[in-house]
Amino acid sequence: MKKGLMFEFLKGLWDESPTFRQLLGMCPTLAVTTSIINGFSMGIATSFVLLCSSVIVSLLRSVIPKEVRIAAYVVIIAAFVTVADLYLKANFAGISKALGPFVPLIVVNCIILGRAEAFASKNGIVPAFVDGLGMGLGFTIALTVIGAIREVLGSGMLGEPWVIMILPSGAFITLGLLIALMNVIKDKTRARPAPACPLACPGCSPGGVS
Amino acid sequence: MDLVLIFISAAIVNNFVLSYFLGICPFLGVSNKLDKALSMGAATTFVLVLSAAVTWLINNLLLIPNNLPFLQYVSFIIVIASLVQFVEMFMRKFTPPLYRSLGIYLPLITTNCAILGLALLSALRNYNFSQSVVFGLAAGVGFTLALCIMAGIREELDLAPIPEPFKGAPITLIVAGLLALAFMGFAGLISG
Q1: How many angstroms away from the CA of B73 is the closest CA of chain A?
Q2: Is the ipTM here above 0.85?
Q3: CB 3.0–4.6 Å: which of A135, A170, B37, B99 could bond A12 by disulfide?
Q4: Closest partner residue to B24 among A27, A177, A197, by Cβ?
Q5: Is residue A123 a contact partner of residue A58, using CB atoms and an 8 Å limit?
Q6: pTM: predicted TM-score of the whole model, two decimal places
Q7: Cα B157 to chain center, whole Å?
């Protein structure tokens, strides 16, 4: 059991990193990572919602009828997103303004719905909590790293500023290069195919929402 | 004139996919074949316009008069999910051919951030009813445009010698980056 929990935690950081391996939650990953602080706060906000909704979904897994489970998950997630949004607005107004509509858009972040459907709805509260923690941390690290790369190169901390890094296209290119880098490292350590199509996530798959 | 500006701004200059990053999931997932991309774009545009109208009505006739703006997210997502379900049922019953071509894309649309993003953006910008609907239409057109361009490029990419680590998602993202750069060329079209 002990080893099991450690595995559930660590898989979110590397093997099943939501950003680099599963390609989930791409919209906030690309949109808010113009600076370290934005990426980091988005990661924390998403992790909070992910943790809370994983625990609640896990608690309610025997109560929610199968037919309406996606709708139920979405309502649970939306409730926690409202909490996170109001908290940010009250205490971190600047960050809330910088993230703009991407805080409420956590509702449709596939990572959260994906974990609710693939993990929390099938596991007890402790594994669901640990899984949420690992995935949230993996997402936060990924966003912070992308934010750091874009901010350092884009603001000219290393000489000439690369304006493109702050622009939308810089987000796509940075993420593309990082995933390619991850693939190289992965191939060196263990032969494994490239990540599957992003629609493999239950939240996005044709059979997922019904 | 105002409506024309909103249309051009949302469809081209501030393209939903390439500059607001809304709807990236289907953009990366469904953009490998042109006909699929076109169907997905059409289905999304349809839902975008419909949900723009319905969420505007909910927000302005129900939530704001009753001082309940904190229920925005929950009610918007419920409206969108049930709208998608309703459209699917309606199409299956009354337009089976259309359902067969678009049907499988409909459930995907609920989790498309473009739909919720549109509802939130038009609430944020205080658009009136017709502005919201035009905004929805323009967002759909822009989404379809980006999806189709991407699909066209990816059909060519299938034949290109791509380095092994770049196969799949990385090359798609880099192409999207170049596409976003190209769309920046429209930036001067509208000021502000």
Answers
A1: 6
A2: no
A3: A135
A4: A27
A5: yes
A6: 0.83
A7: 24
